[in-house]
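hey so i finally got around to running both of the ones u sent me last week. sorry it took forever, my laptop kept dying halfway thru and i had to restart like 3 times lol. anyway pasting them below in the order u listed, first the sequence line then the structure token line for each. didnt double check formatting much so if smth looks off just lmk and ill redo it

first one:
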Amino acid sequence: MLVSPPREPNFYNKDNNMELILKQDVQNLGFKDDVVSVKNGYGRNFLIPQGFAQLATPSAKKVLAENLKQRAHKEAKVVADAKALAESLKAIEIKIAAKAGGEKLFGSITNIDIVEALAKGGQVIDRKFVTSGIVKRTGKYTASVRLHRDVIVELDYEIVAEKA
């Protein structure tokens, strides 16, 4: 008598997607400990092998729920600290001097330049949390800084022509 080996449980939705629990923040997908639904290939070939996610089995979901419950009060303190940092960031006036010919810059202003200006103002922020486009003209612009998944602050900054 032939006995077939036990089958792997099916963690896929009917629409050919799979549920995963993120182990860390993944840009344009979600934050750490989020349960997300992604295409099978993206999950199997990228997220799981890179260590960004794990399968959302029923037992993994229970463990996640317990961890989130225990972490809830610590999370409130982290959010309060992020809000305090957001207020201090809003108080900083950011002016970036760059070489320009008229209104057009020689080069461009990126997230790195904004982070350096914030560092001069006394606030050290990692550049991957700052989002702004590439700016090639003088004027006033806005950048968003993600301090926490719930705290995103909009910073106004100005680009001025460098005095020669």
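and the second one:
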Amino acid sequence: MANVTKALIGKFMFQIGELAKRCNVTADTLRFYEKNRLLKPAGRSESGYRLYNQENQKQVSFILKAKDLGLSLDEIRELLEIKLEATEHSCFEVKAITSAKLLVIDEKINELTRIRSALKKINDACCGHDNDDASHCSILTALDANDA
């Protein structure tokens, strides 16, 4: 879109600070999204300022919701590209992205469960007395053990 006249600014379009306020993010966050090809201003003012519209606001909302679900910038970009050309893509493609993320999350949960179990085991074995020195602490002994 070419430079936008002042009449449209304020009524249908707004500058980065206003979009940031509406979306409860910083202007730097919006610049970051633009730099990473997640957001493209609807236009520029005569003086070169980025201008945004309601569609941009919806896009930022989409990005924030996707981030809350743990999706990466690349995954969000891919979903946005599919959304922009939805008739050219299938639900299968979208689901493939979220299914892959679920697998990664399940792997992380399994790893964290294993770590928690091992830490709890050595933590529970420790007497935890504050009047004993740590020279015989079972946690330090377990961490010092040579069993790999």
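quick thing i noticed on the 2nd:
The helical segments are 16-23, 27-35, 54-68, 73-84, 91-125, 138-144.
anyway thats it, ttyl
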